[in-house]
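Input record, target 12 of the design panel.
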């Protein structure tokens, strides 16, 4: 993958404050052991296939994904390739997206946050980790990424970890000096004109 992919999710173009649990677009059947090399615009770490697809839907420039179930790395690609142009990539999965003009939709309301739970965090599901930041900045970044469902916050050093899981699909474990916060958002079924 390209050096540009190391920009991680911060190169993703945010289309609105969203919180969705399943892809809004139509996706091609997964093609096994192939992918795209040298065309990625961002990479999401510690992903599963669903959060990989959601990350692509968040980014208007993403047309396909190359995902590794083994390493949990998700590469967002700026191209769609036919079978003859795909590269052999063992243990990778390739999928292409086809979104309606106004997907994903904008929510009716902004997201809100639960009260922090002391001494708890989601294990092994950090999409992004930020250092030397504030709780408010951490929550704001999570708000902008609809596949981010909760955060682990370590106030003593200003460490913020964004999670693609919350307590409904992940496991809260005991971590000293951490606080865990859950994001709650209201979804909308109504398309907005500026999403076209």
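The sequence produced for target 12 reads:
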């Amino acid at each position: 993958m390209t050096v540009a992919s190391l920009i991680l999710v911060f190169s993703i173009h945010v289309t609105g404050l969203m919180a969705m649990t399943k892809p809004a677009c139509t996706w091609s059947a997964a093609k096994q052991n192939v992918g795209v090399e040298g065309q990625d615009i961002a990479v999401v770490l510690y992903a599963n296939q669903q959060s990989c697809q959601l990350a692509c839907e968040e980014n208007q420039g993403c047309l396909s994904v190359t995902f590794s179930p083994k390493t949990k790395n998700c590469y967002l690609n700026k191209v769609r390739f036919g079978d003859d142009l795909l590269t052999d990539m063992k243990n990778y999965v390739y999928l292409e997206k086809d979104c309606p003009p106004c997907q994903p939709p904008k929510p009716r309301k902004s997201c809100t946050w639960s009260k922090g739970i002391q001494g708890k965090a989601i294990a092994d599901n950090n999409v992004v980790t930020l250092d030397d930041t504030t709780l408010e900045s951490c929550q704001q970044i999570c708000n902008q990424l609809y596949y981010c469902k909760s955060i682990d916050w370590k106030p003593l050093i200003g460490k913020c970890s964004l999670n693609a899981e919350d307590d409904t699909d992940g496991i809260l474990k005991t971590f000293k000096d951490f606080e865990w916060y859950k994001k709650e958002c209201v979804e909308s079924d109504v398309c907005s004109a500026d999403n076209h």
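The first strand starts at residue 26 and ends at 27.
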